[in-house]
Amino acid sequence: MNPPIRVNETPAPRALQVLRCMRLGLHLLWGAATIASVYPLASTSVRLQLKRRWSRQLLRMLGIRLDVCWNNAPAGSLVVANHVSWLDIYALNATHAMAFVAKADVRAWPLVGWLAARTDTVFLRRGLRADARDANARIAALLQAGQDVAVFPEGTTTDGSTLLDFHAALLQPAIATGRPIQPVAITYHDRHGRRSGAAAYAGDTSLRECLAAILACRSLVVRVRAAPPLPTQSGHRRVLALAARQAVAAHMALSPHPQPNPPHRMPAGEHPLQADVATT
User: Which residue windows are transmembrane per the record (predicted)?
Assistant: First the structure.
């Protein structure tokens, strides 16, 4: 039985919501200025430190507390996580800065595409095998260089009460390079510790509605739980995808079995980190 998804019933004062929104806008502008001026001159380690600090500050500005339990996985791991919200990216970066895989459409988005392209994002055009091979090669290069790369193998978002099948093809770069797979569960909770759907960017929820729900929370906790890393030597990607999914489901306190008809699937093409692949 999956735990119920709850949303904080008492909204934050309107003045606090406005203040959070203003601070978020200024923080995004500051991030763009930092990327334009500092990133070209900074080493990889400095860039990752800046990304982690910026993401932690963003969560604090939104009144979100980060609750982390992270294993000491080797550098250059492929992080596979469930996907609930655009906040997942910042929760992971605030925990342990990394590169991400995103659909190619994001590159053309105003400001967001520019920021993503300059922060080690790997873009993937869905349905194109040649593009998938190029993306896998870049992911493999990042892993071999000791940089963690995150993928959301469900291919879309849910409200956090269910977990979809994992696309096995996204695990291929880790298998090809012999790098470990790090399963990670992300869940959102209210101030009483109950599951919250306030951050969910799924179904028919628009980005504006999702942001408004987050701003209205008096407090929100994002829990990031890492399972033990999975070795990839001599492993088949479908077997590894199932093992990773079971590990994430266990840390989300969900059933380890796939849900055949997920109730909150985001329409295709709407989310920046939905990266469909040519084959599973």
Answer: 28-50
CATH number of the structural domain spanning residue 47: 3.40.1130
Mean pLDDT throughout 95-115?
A: 80
Reading the block at residue 218, the tokens are 């008096």
The pLDDT value given to residue 253: 87
Half-sphere exposure of 236 (CA within 13 A, CB side): 4
User: Does residue 258 sit within a domain?
Assistant: no
| Residue 209 to residues 155, 196, 262, Cα–Cα distance (Å) | 21, 15, 21
Report yes or no on 273 lying in a domain: no
pLDDT, the chain, mean: 85
Domain count, the chain: 1
Q: Is residue 213 part of a domain?
A: yes
Per-residue b/e over 46-72, b at no fewer than 16 CB within 10 Å? Answer: ebbebbbebbbbbbebbbbebeeeeee
Indicate the pTM of the whole model. 0.86
For 228, the domain range is: 14-251
Per-residue pLDDT tens over the stretch 158-168? 999 999 999 99
